Amino acid sequence: MHDHYTGRGLMATKSIKPGDVIVSIPSNLLITSQVVLRSELKDVLKIFPVKLTARLLLCAFVIYERQKGPSSFWAPYIGCLPDAFSTPSYFTSEELQHLPAALRQRATEQTRLLCDGFSKLTKFFEFGQECHFLSDFSFDLDDFKWAWSAVNTRTLYYKVEEAGSHHLVDPSERDVYVLAPFLDLLNHSSTAEVAGSFNSIKQCYEIQTTTPYNKFDQVFIHYGPHDNETLLLEYGFVEPTNPHSVVAITKEDVIKFSSEVMDAWVSETGSVLPKRFERIEAKGIWDISCSLNGPSWHLTVSLNILCMGQEQYGRGEWVGLLGGEEPSQECLARSRRAVQNILCNYLAKAVTSSQEVLSIKSDSYHHYMTVQLMQEKKFILEECLKQVQQFEPQEQT
């Protein structure tokens, strides 16, 4: 079936009940590092002086089998793979510039990893040709980008049998990459509840659903609790009304806006607040963000501690806030002002960014996803600000 939002997917041909197995793939149709090590590439891998990670082994395998064409056992599966993908590695330089800054930075790092992998596989295939194990074989960056994207967007992640024990696999990366023909046609939904595991008795990988479906419904699986920036980066799509999407707040802004509401403490907080935040981070505070549910607990408690009076802080009362104790009304009022200022500042920037992206005339899917990200960020900030403004305790005088 084909859906406007999800593209190609799988449709239920009958009603599906909670507990039903929706897909079962025999072990002999799962492509793992062990399959690659038993393939026609094994002779090169045995003498190639550099070990390849499981991910690169799968990339080399799909590139090699693709070039074999119809003679490959895997030709029907490889023929079903997309010719191109919608992940950032397929974006133009101009399209990358329009992505949110944090995502653009992650995409740059992903590109670095891709280029590093290309360099390693180039040496591998050149070595194979020099040793006369591979003949009439051509390989370029486009081939690798396609293979890397296919593996990165379509693999299952579970510990492969005997993984890590084989001396030809680079152990620097976990051997958990598995390509499963047909199963990768199932699209993602945050509301889908599934459990996947290898059935050692039946020797197959199974996915069981706890979400019921009617006949002709599209059937979904769950890739994980990913926000839309991660979904775009790793899989090349965004999900409407994604419950896992958040707006990250920088450490620098948390300190800056806390400093601005400290009144008499402003001159002192230049050195005091960064030191406070270091102690907060040491306690495991990391989720500095806001979502449709409001500011994260980590953001709230960080602001409460940063906005605490020096006398209270000196007595160690900040530790109690980490344990769930309530801050003083004075501290709470300052904290609320700080979070409102943060949200207003981020919202103003989000509105500007959204307007800039919307002004671009483009009908590409890359542009569509960027617009969705910008609009989502703006919506989250608006809703979060409304929630914060519903409760405004007064600062004591």
What does this entry look like structurally?
This protein has 397 residues and is mainly alpha-helical. The protein has two domains: 2-235, set domain protein methyltransferase, domain 1 (Alpha-Beta Complex); 247-389, no CATH class. The protein is 48% helix and 11% strand. It contains 15 helices and 13 strands. The strands form five sheets. A three-stranded mixed β-sheet has the order 3-10-7, with no helix packed on it. Strand 12 (289-291) and strand 13 (294-295) form a beta hairpin. The protein is elongated. The N and C termini lie far apart (65 Å).
Descriptive labels:
397 residues, mainly alpha, 2 domains, 3-stranded mixed sheet, 15 helices
Largest sheet: 3 strands, mixed
Overall shape: it is elongated
Structural class: mainly alpha
Radius of gyration: 26 Å
Q: Please name the fourth-level CATH homologous superfamily of the largest domain.
A: set domain protein methyltransferase, domain 1
Total count of strands: 13
Supply the number of helical segments. 15
Mean pLDDT: 90
Helix content: 40-55%
Instruction: State the end-to-end CA separation.
Output: 65 Å
Fraction in beta strands: 5-15%
State the strand order across the main sheet: 3-10-7
Tell me the CATH architecture of the largest domain: Alpha-Beta Complex
**CATH topology label of the largest domain:** set domain protein methyltransferase, domain 1
Low-pLDDT runs of 5+ residues are none
Tell me the domain tally: 2
What is the CATH level 1 assignment of the largest domain?
Alpha Beta
Order of helices and strands: EEEEHHHHHHHEEEEEEHEHHEEHHHHH
Protein name: Putative SET domain-containing protein 4-like isoform X2
GO molecular function: protein-lysine N-methyltransferase activity
Pfam families: SET
Domain SET: 1-224
